[in-house]
UniProtKB/TrEMBL annotation:
Protein name: DUF1272 domain-containing protein
Pfam families: DUF1272
Species assigned in the record: Pseudoxanthomonas sacheonensis
Length: 82
């Protein structure tokens, strides 16, 4: 099950579970569409992989399977490490 992280690792923008702006890589690194398209040029800085739109979780399932509340933020910013 996806963790559904609550923020962009690059700019710390909020990405609620129903956000259409959330993008994830195969390791669930989570970024906003704006950072993926601009600062990251479509390549994950953590693993080097590509991104896909994060699926949303049906509202009635969020109570039983809540999204993560753990915020992950790259302290060094959006620099492409890989």
């Amino acid at each position: 099950m996806l963790q559904m992280r609550p923020n962009c690792e690059c700019c710390d923008a909020d990405l609620p579970p129903d956000s259409s702006a959330a993008r994830i890589c195969s390791f669930e690194c989570t970024f906003c569409a704006s950072c993926v398209d601009t600062a990251l040029a479509g390549k994950c800085p953590n693993c080097g992989g590509g991104f896909a739109a994060r699926p949303t979780r049906a509202a009635h399932l969020l109570a039983k399977y809540p999204a993560s509340t753990e915020r992950v933020l790259k302290p060094e910013g959006c620099g492409r490490a890989v």
